[in-house]
Amino acid sequence: MRQRPFSSKAWRFRCRPRPADAVTHARALLRDKRTVGDAFGLGLGLDLLAAALAALQRASESAVAYGAGQAFWDMVGHPQRGTPELGPLREGSERAARRQLGSDAYGTAYTWPHSRTAS
To answer: So where are the chain's domains?
Structure first.
């Protein structure tokens, strides 16, 4: 059976040891998905970017990426639709970023993308 390219197992074995490479790849994914207007792909890419940023101890950026990603998941109508294996990755990375940053600062960074678009 062929492995799905964004499975948590793929992350664990291919990206987690090289989170800086994962950031580069996630940004390329986001650029391409933005070009074609793919909300699902943008949500997925932002989740992967946020996980890689958390692994790099860049908690504030990770929280912003997760907050922005949530906006796309809300547009799609279903978080990680079709990719349930990303749930544990997101939960673990969010916990790590929250620990690095502190709960209040994480919450502020997470909601920052929403406050920028509300006006």
So the answer is: 8-117
Instruction: Enumerate the H helices of the chain as residue ranges.
Output: 8-10, 19-36, 39-55, 59-76, 86-101, 103-117
CA quadruple 84, 88, 91, 97: dihedral, nearest 10? -120
Cβ distance 109 to 64 under 8 Å?
Answer: yes
Phi, psi of 20, deg, nearest 5: -65, -40
Helix (H, G, I), strand (E, B), or coil: what is residue 61?
helix
Phi then psi for residue 104, to 5 deg, are: -65, -45
- Encode pLDDT of 63-104 as tens digits: 999 999 988 888 888 776 667 778 888 899 999 999 999 999
